[in-house]
Amino acid sequence: MPSCRTHPLPYSADPAVYFERIRQAPGAVLFDSGQPASQRGRYDLLSAWPVARFGPEPGENGRDFFRRLRQATAGLGYAQAHESPFAGGLMGYLSYDFARRLERLPDTVHDDLELPDAQIGLYAWALISDHQSRTTGLVFHPSLDSTECERLKQLFSAPAKIQAAEFHLEADFAPDLPPGDYRRAIERILAYIQAGDCYQVNFAQRFQASFQGDPWAAYKALRRACPTPFAGYQPLADGGAILSLSPERFLRVAHSQVESRPIKGTRPRGRNDAEDRALADELRNSPKDRAENLMIVDLLRNDLSRSCRPGSVRVPELFALESYPNVHHLVSAVTGELASEKDALELIAGSFPGGSITGAPKIRAMQIIDELEGTRRSIYCGSLFYLDVRGELDSSIAIRTLLARNGRISCWGGGGIVADSDWEEEYRESITKVRTLLETLRAL
User: Is the peptide bond preceding residue 179 cis, with omega within 30 degrees of 0?
Assistant: First the structure.
């Protein structure tokens, strides 16, 4: 069985040390576990110069697109990589709107950001930092020729030439929805819930500002202010970038074991220790937040059951508290064993987008989201992921995620609306979730 070659490098807890060298290269991509401040993530991955790049063709069905990705991965070839999360394969993003290629959904929502539904590369190498073993190294797929391996070794071993990067807002962030329009949207959702259309709808509002400079400088500042275990940075072909500070895992597959960790339930951090503990306890014991979380757990159990071995889906963790610099969250875990006739792409197809950011039932909730949010979500609530030639997958839900393109930077905040939701509380929560991100960029 062919095996990946490896080359050790000096360990770095900060992936920017190495990513600086390739961030302007074609197909550059970074998956960032938020170390050392965030203790939940283990691996950072980065790469560039993909063997091939993929995006959906006009009108292409999502499963047909996944078939092309599957063929490309098979063409690269299976390889072993001992104790490595990646042995060569796919890296990239799926926007929330990729769901229109998987499900029957309206196609009338205004697409003012015009982000492609997916941008995915096939990569034959990666630089990986393992923060558990405190090691960093290059992993080369067997197909990568020795000349390219040597070039990459020299690139990451030579002193870095850091290019200065600056970022500043030209105008402050402003919400798309005035408070009155937000209130009317929540009232409409509550009417749908009372009529029996749905149980929960994840409603979001968008904030936008104009900017000048390099989105990479913005990402580094955001990472310092709000480190998270499923962060990432992906430059776009047109000079824009995706800046993700996500705390939420969408799907993971490791040795055929599947895990999803939905977040549902939020409180701000307190101004002092006593207030912080009180807010955390309030969240832990909130019947409303626990009910929201349980609804999404049930939805994910159903989604995972489509691709997992019958009887294997479990909920080993329910209503766990996770705390970040800006918020407390309620998090649960749903697990299963991937069925022998399924693979990770079929798992994604049967579960995308994540139930924690749609509502329940999923399709009806997504129809209501389209009706009331007014514009497409773009990258927000999509996913950044990597999937290797062995079938190993890790992916995020792209919340706390910004899109910088064409001189505009967009950010979204939202939450789950249920029968007893209060529009003013939901409005405050949508701002709480992104306040640290917006304030950090204002200060640059």
Answer: no
Question: Token pair for residue 252?
Answer: 């993971």
The DSSP result for 94-122, as a single string, is: E-GGGGGGTS-----SB-SS---SEEEEE
Q: Which two structure tokens, joined as six digits, stand for 355?
A: 């139930």
The band of 41, judged by pLDDT with boundaries at 50, 70 and 90, is confident
| Mean pLDDT taken over the chain | 95
Q: Which of 220, 264, 342, 433 is catalytic?
A: 264
Q: Does position 407 have pLDDT exceeding 70, yes or no? A: yes
Catalytic residue among 220, 248, 342, 362: 248
Other CB atoms within a 10 A radius of the CB of residue 130 amount to 17
Specify the pTM.
Answer: 0.95
Q: Give the Cβ contact number of residue 165 at 10 Å.
A: 15
% of the chain beyond a pLDDT of 90: 92
Q: Where does the pLDDT of residue 238 fall: very low under 50, low under 70, confident under 90, or very high at 90 and above?
A: confident
220 is catalytic: no
248 has catalytic annotation: yes
The percent helix, strand, coil of the chain (3-state, each to 5) is 30, 30, 35
Q: What is the pLDDT of residue 37?
A: 64
* Angle at 19 (CA atoms; ends 227, 165), nearest 5 degrees: 80
**Sequence ranges of the domains in the chain:** 5-442
CATH 3.40.50.300 for domain 5-442: no
What does residue 202 show for φ and ψ, rounded to 5 degrees? -85, 105
